[in-house]
Amino acid sequence: MSSIPQADIPVRVTRAEKIADGIHLYEMRRPDGGDLPAFTAGSHINLRVPNGLMRKYSLCSDPAARDHYCIAVKREDNGRGGSIYLIDNTREGDEWMISAPDNAFALPQRGDNFIFIAGGIGITPFIAMIHALKNDPTKKFRLYYCSRTPEMTAFREELSAPEHMGRVVIHYDGGDPSKALDLWPIVEERKNREHIYCCGPRGLMEAVRDATGHWTPTSIHFEAFSEADARRPDDTPFKVRLASSGATIDVPAGTTILEAMRAAGYDVPSSCESGTCGTCRTRLIAGEADHRDLVLTEAERSSQIMICVSRAKTPELVIDR
Ligand code: FES
Question: Which end of the chain is more exposed for a tag (fewer CB within 10 A), N or C?
């Protein structure tokens, strides 16, 4: 769990390679050749893009290998410029600053069966998970990987290898929602100690959440690869009052409550910062929230808020901070 992510580990890019249409893989190592901090499957790092932006990327290398990390970056033409800068400017030998790995999407100790559902570049954490599970015969997984076309499918060759036969399904929809993966046969039955992990576009995660109402919430895990839903073009400013001190904080359009609190000097714990992990759960005392997370149940929404993504429908919210 972190407050403001620090990117204080220098690394050198030792491989920069296009692996699918619009997707590039970057391998990085310490300039002195030493080990990088250990990580568990599902972890991400924060990367300070040389243009100044801080971006979060899931690690997709084998957690057992300490001498390098890998990330895969998709060119987001409608993003804030981090991925475009990286893809257009990164060369082998470049130096980056990254944070230590953090994990808001970890595999549980008490889990034997895993259903992985990936959409697009949301495949990246599952590559590390498959590495982590491959040598443990007590753990079973099935991966459903949704992509538009074979050309846009990162890691397609690796995942089509004979060793994954019967447990990896790559589903191509050509970008047509009517050809989307049918989730119900996948999630209808639940085995003992089974967990669902989903990473992908918002629509896919919402479809998984809607199809799994009969699962216990602690068995469903989401990771967002984009913060897009925390910011929408029609967002408006509002105020947040902190019940403990009575202080009022302005939350401008384009800024999250979490960011506004930090800018005002408050140290607020967070991890995913995409409304999926639950770390920033805060009691909502007054006002009506515009909920944008995948954590809270309908029943919880009147009294709690995820301040990393959700906003206000009323001019002011009062929260228990
Ligand atoms: Fe993960 Fe807010 S930090 S839900």
Answer: N
Cα separation, 120 vs 200, whole angstroms: 6
Distance 262 CA to ligand 1 centre (A): 14
Please give the residue range of the domain that contains residue 75. Answer: 9-98
Ligand 1 site, residue 308, Cβ cutoff 6 A: yes
Whose C-alpha lies nearest to ligand 1, atom 4? 275
The model's pTM: 0.87
CATH code: domain of residue 121 = 3.40.50.80
Give yes or no: residues 180 and 243 share one domain.
no
> Is residue 47 situated within a structural domain?
yes
> pLDDT of 68-125, one tens digit each?
999 999 998 877 788 999 999 999 999 999 999 999 899 998 889 999 999 999 999 9
CB distance 268 to ligand 1 below 6 Å: no
Q: How far is the CA of 307 from the centre of ligand 1 (A)?
A: 7
Nearest atom in ligand 1 to 309's CA: 2
